[in-house]
Sequence to fold (346 residues):
Amino acid sequence: MHEALVAVPMRTYSLELYVCRCKTPLVVPNPEEVRLIDRIQKMLERFDYLLPLVAADFQYRQHYYRLNAAALLEDLFFDAFGTHLRQTEPKVSASRAIAGAKSWDYEIDGLRTSHKMSKKGNEISVHWDATAKRDSWSADHPIVVGLSENIPHTLHFVSQNGEKSRGIPLRRDQWSKLEEGKVIQIVGGSWTRLESGLQFSVSFVKQLSNVQPFEHSIPFSEVWNEVGRHLDAGGRCNDFDLLKFNNSKHVFDVGEILNCLDEPLLSGFHLFPTALLQNVPLSSNNRSGSLISKQRVRECMHVCQRSGLFAPMPLWFSMYAEDRPPNLYSTQRKELDELFGARLSW
Fold:
């Protein structure tokens, strides 16, 4: 277990206590905060929201400067989340903060919330203002923090018969074509968190030994059939993942259970409750005078993942996402063209 954490009871959107040793007292998320992460989870259970968000995470980060990519991903998240709420809970209000607001990003059903996107779980800024330096900070609203990588990248597993292996959750920007003669296993399945830690249940195994692009070796339709079986069995879309095992002596079987020996941070969205963000020590750099340290951010992520204030966003679909920058002009041009539709009444 992460050194900064004590044992945390498992829960699923309930109000049990949890604690970490980063000078943080016992805290309880309020009901509005629990409802917020519950709504995010329900959105990510739908493939028509999950997969576009995963594709954009790869595309934006691949083609835009880091802060620009993060800002665009925050906007995209709100647009997706707001659309989902209008479709599923039309009475719930959702509004974006006015441009330039420094303390919060959106308000859902009266709960103001900040939103941060982090690729590697590094420090996050309370305010992007290098001239306003503070030693500590207390929040008056929660923060939703998205993580776009699994930490660490390589995970260690042990099978039920004691065989050990190392696997990497698939992500497009970490993939390279196979070398001649190299054999890997792509293993699909679903994550489950237990008191003892994470388990991965194997439902799909394929060996690759050629140098074709991934989407040719394993067509999307083949993976989607596995996702369909996972959903038919009562699973959730955002629990399914694909792992890559290099040079593993262990040949995996469908139905096998792998116990993760690490305490990893999985990619997805964390709800940092207000009570966890009191008297937080801050540091500064040349862009911000109000930074929460990487250690503190990751400690809070561990707390969220082990206490249920977390909605996973596995990144395997990035393997099928187009490696192209988003065409911002085409969106604007589409709006213009629609004004000249032949069937419109002028």
In short: The longest strand covers residues 197-208. The CA atoms of residues 176 and 213 lie 9 Å apart. The chain has seven helices and 16 strands. Residues 155-260 form one domain.
